[in-house]
Amino acid sequence: MSSRKRIVIVAKKEIIEFIRDWRTIVALVLIPLLLFPLLFIAFPIVMQNEAAELDEKTVDILIQSDDIESTLVEMIENQSAYITLEPLSDDLTTLSDSENSTEQLRNLEYDAILRIELRNNTWYYAILHLSTSEQSNEARSRILGVLIQWEEDLTAQRIESAGLDVESTLNPLQWDGIIADGDVATKGEQAGMILSLFIPFVLAIWTASAAVQPAIDMTVGERERGTLESLLSLPLSRTELLLGKWLAVVSITAVGVTLQIGGLLFGIAYLASDFIDVPSLSIGAVLLLALAVGFYGTMIVALYLALAMRSKSVKEAGSVLTPITLAMIMPILLTQFINLDDVEMFWFGVPFVNVLLGLRELLLNRIILEHVLVWVFVSSLVCLLTVRYAAKQFHREDIITTKS
Amino acid sequence: MEPLLRLINVKKSFGDVQAIEHVNIDIHQNSVIGLVGGNGAGKTTLLRLMSGVYRPTEGSVELSNKRPVSEMRSVLGVVPESTGLYSKLTAWENIRYHSRLHGIDDQLAWNRTYRFAKLLDIDESLHRYTEGFSRGMKQKTALLRALAHGPQILLLDEPTGGLDVTSARTVRQLVRNLKNEGGTVIYSTHHLAEAQQVCDRIIIVHNGLIQADGTPDELLGLTNTKTLEEAYVLLTSETARPRMEDTEQPSNISKLWRRLVTPSTKMEVNEDE
Question: How far apart are the first and last CA of chain B?
Answer without folding.
Answer: 72
